[in-house]
Please model this.
Amino acid sequence: MEKQSPESIYFFGTCLIDLMYPQAGMSAMQLIQREGVRVIFPQDQTCCGQPAWNSGYRDEARQVAEKQLALFDLDIPIVVPSGSCAGMMKHHYPELFEGTVLEEKANAVAGRVWELTEFLVDVLNIQLDDLGEPVDVAIHTSCSARREMGVADKIEQLVGQLENVTVLAQEYKAECCGFGGTFAVKQPEISAAMVEDKTAAIRDTGAQVLVSQDAGCLMNISGAFEYQGDGPESQHIANFLWERSHGK
Amino acid sequence: MENDTETRVAFEHPEFKVRVVDALKNDRVRKNFRSAMDGLMRRRLDMFDDAEALENLRTQSMAIRANSLSRLPEMLEKLEAKCIENGIQVHWAETTEQANDIVLKIAQQHDAKSIVKGKSMVSEEMGMNHYLEEQGIECLESDLGEFILQLAEEPPSHIVAPAIHKDRYQVAKLFKEKFPDIPYSDDIDDLTKNARTILRDKFYSAPIGLSGVNFAVAETGTICLVENEGNGRMSTTVPPVHIAVTGIEKVVEMLEDVPPLLSILTRSATGQPITTYFNMITSPRKDGEKDGPKEVHLVLLDNGRSKIYGDPELIATLRCIRCGACMNHCPVYVRVGGHAYGTVYPGPIGTVLEPQKEKGLQAHGELTQASSLCGACGEVCPVRIPLPKLINRLRYEGNRKDESSVTGAGSRRKTSEAMIWKGWAKAHSSPGMYRFGTNAASKMRGLIPNKLGAWTRVRSAPKLAEKSLHQLAKEEGIDHE
Ligand code: SF4
Model:
């Protein structure tokens, strides 16, 4: 899996990070740039199309995804700071465009997609110096990073490089936080039961910071912490890594 | 029923949402499921300490099931011919009504007023107990879990452990109420012993035994039955007539196919290397033999399955060997339990199978929304059914505009929702419009209400950033091409 660092990469920021966690997107790009890689952020990017895809609106998903396919003409990696959006582009674009004129293009794009933590570890072989104060963290790995992308170990490896960071054990760690995109709105009661259990398990660790590689989970979990008025600070992994290794 | 209000979920309510809310607020049910599922997950894990061996066995099991399904009509013909040759009478039922009718006719031929049953999910699918009882034939459940549920007048909440929503104290209370002469005990061994005593008599007097089928082997015409309590063996050997009911998908090609499937089934289901009993039934009692039923019937039920067979993607649904692992690992199932689904098969496999049965997406399409698509089910399924992928496909079938071969395609489409997605697609496929929209949203973020329907019932409203990533990237001079 180990590859040589490419000269440049495309960065696909995802719509959630665009609107809610832009600093995480900036941090991710800065981490990659610091490794001597040129980052291209196509200004015409919007959303990978996953919300519609997961809701069963395939024509609408295709309409949006088609526009993204046109953004990545150079044969360079496409880095995505989200397990679920990366999963969409890597695994579902080929399905979505199967049998259409864009099939080949979709397959080519899919083959170049990397989830951020996977890219930092497997391609850039990044080495992080921890400049931060000692801190206890809990990690929440999104289900798509864990199962669809199979990269749950990468975030652990990255955090593990930080000398002053202690990762605390967590009950039901591999269980879904209850976000699931439109699931949280379509089945709010079940989603609520899930996020309540998830926040309790994370709070029980006593961690000061929660990190995750997916903005969707973060929005869900941190929203619940805030509502409950008790819980750790939440950070996207890119943000956390950049701040610790660069100084705030 | 007053004896057990604590674990009674409103399973009869026609609305999914009502059943879900009722289940979620029932702390005892939730606790029972959590601890039972934790146990089942742990036991399964203990069985598979070699991850690579597990993945190989999953691949092999998938291939075995996929092979017999790819040639389903041929396999079924072979099975029928072999069974007839062996003296087993074969019956075909397209619908559950037909299947019930077949069982009824057999009972009538034998003047039977009662049937003793081993565990069978297909008989649940048929609603057989109810049907026969209306015709004056009593069905006696002999599986301990099913026996408990029959006393409590509740349906199964799990396909392998049907009474898993009840803890032993509730069972003890139920026994005390139904059998006041037996001294109270909430010890599991005592409860099992008591049930056995009650049931044993019934076996000797029942004229017909009925069972399900785990695998039906085409090569030899053998009905395989996996069980732990010996009630399956009793129901299929003691009464003079044995009726086995099964879905048509349970056929496998060869006897050789059975050991790997059996091994992965029991380990995935209950974390056992093998069950206490494994029955292989190949013929009725032969001349000179001292025991076994004089007649064996095999009822093969379709109920929407041949339609599933016809779809190259959805056919994977039929690979299922009913181990229950997908529900044991499902974060939705573990919280709402089986009854909230309101269907015979709950959990991820129910979510996929139920909307594809005879009544289609109209009847149970809503279940496809009850998944966060976390993928835990697909990860453990012993025959690698891509359950999340199939759920996604069925969501699409429910919402699509045009016709398709899936029953009820398009029946869940709501104009209002379709309009929203149309607008969404338009906004996200025009970069200029998207940037304009996100800029405007960021600028006016103070105006966003802090109550957003269901989301803010347990969470604070999401907060938009002051500037979008598009803006920041531009300001920081990140290349855009
Ligand atoms: S779908 Fe897979 S995991 Fe679920 S019951 Fe069937 S075989 Fe078992």
